[in-house]
Amino acid sequence: MIISSAKPFEEILELLKDEDDIFVVGCNACAAKQHLGGEPEVIEMCERLEEAGKHVVGWVIPSAACSVVSFDSLIEKNPAIKDAKTVLVMACGSGVSIVSSVADLPVYPSNNTESLGGRSQGEVVPELCAMCGDCTVYYFGGICPKGQCPKQLLNGPCGGAIDGKCEVDPEKDCVWELIYCKLERTGRLDLLEKVWTVEELTE
Ligand code: SF4
Ligand code: SF4
């Protein structure tokens, strides 16, 4: 899941200050799960834009904004987009980019895209994977230090954790403590014998 956060409404209005006849595109995937681009948020955005003096021509919520195949597919869902002069996309940057690639209109984002995360036990969990292109998470019990350790340490902890909490971000558990415990529980502490070289770290 792509983790995003909502831009302040004032910032969105500033982005749209020279634009009107706005069509709003939500996203029924990651953005909806984070309450940033599902139907309630899209309807609320339309109402707030109208209250701010903007004309909203319509809205649509594709199953995933990052998988919109064509402008015609948006017209099929809501023909009002043909009257739009501007599109506001309530999705991640990938969704904004894909909508922009099929719509010959100015396209604006309502969200800030932050990281690749997920959901666990009903909670949104950010920054799980740094998308390094060479997945070695197996060596770390499935808990990625590239994505989750602020220092991105691959050869063990920095030693600064206090009571299991990260010295950089005390709100979070030290990821290296989590890695150690997971490998211990699964009988794979031997994986920690691997020493990562500079070459491997920079590949
Ligand atoms: S090693 Fe970590 S950052 Fe790289 S792809 Fe795997 S989970 Fe993502
Ligand atoms: S305390 Fe743990 S998670 Fe935080 S920077 Fe050090 S090793 Fe990484």
UniProtKB/TrEMBL annotation:
<dbReference type="Pfam" id="PF12225">
    <property type="entry name" value="DUF5981"/>
</dbReference>
<dbReference type="InterPro" id="IPR022026">
    <property type="entry name" value="DUF5981"/>
</dbReference>
<feature type="domain" description="Methylene-tetrahydrofolate reductase C-terminal-like">
    <location>
        <begin position="108"/>
        <end position="200"/>
    </location>
</feature>
<protein>
    <submittedName>
        <fullName>Methylene-tetrahydrofolate reductase C terminal</fullName>
    </submittedName>
</protein>
